[in-house]
Design brief:
Length: about 150
């Protein structure tokens, strides 16, 4: 009979191994798990054309199903929480630039992943602009950093 602690340990190690076993490409170094898969996607361009060579990361349907679709902000937050851990988001920024008063810099999130989040949110909330969605992402990263600071004190 396997103890419950052994089962939890095995499940956790299986989750960490899953990206290599599936052969998926995860561009980030988060411990959030294999939530993204690389594929070629047709993205709409500003001039109305379609980009056929844009490589995006597909967000798994299971993550999308768990997201709250009441507002674009909630959907963006839930997508990001499904893709990344709080610690990973707290350690990264949208642009990679640091706060000049503190002198610290944080690495940026991969641009392909940020683009896919924008595409996904725009597919559900067609009236939202890219600038609004970027604001939701920025706020989520800021909130994650604040949460992590509170936990350490």
């Amino acid at each position: 009979m396997i103890s419950s602690m052994q089962q939890l340990t095995e499940q956790h190690s299986d989750r960490e191994r899953k990206p290599e076993e599936e052969g998926t490409s995860t561009a980030h170094t988060s411990t959030a798990g294999p939530s993204l898969q690389s594929s070629t996607t047709h993205l709409p361009l500003e001039d109305g054309g379609i980009s056929t060579d844009a490589v995006c990361l597909d967000i798994k349907q299971a993550i999308k199903d768990r997201c709250n679709k009441a507002t674009a902000a909630k959907y963006t937050n839930d997508l990001m929480h499904g893709l990344y851990t709080t610690a990973f988001m707290a350690a990264h920024s949208v642009t990679g630039l640091g706060v000049s008063s503190r002198g610290e810099t944080r690495p940026s999130l991969p641009s392909a992943e940020l683009t896919k989040i924008v595409c996904e949110v725009k597919s559900v909330f067609k009236e939202k602009t890219e600038a609004e969605i970027k604001g939701y992402r920025r706020q989520k990263l800021s909130n994650s950093a604040k949460i992590l600071k509170r936990k350490t004190f």
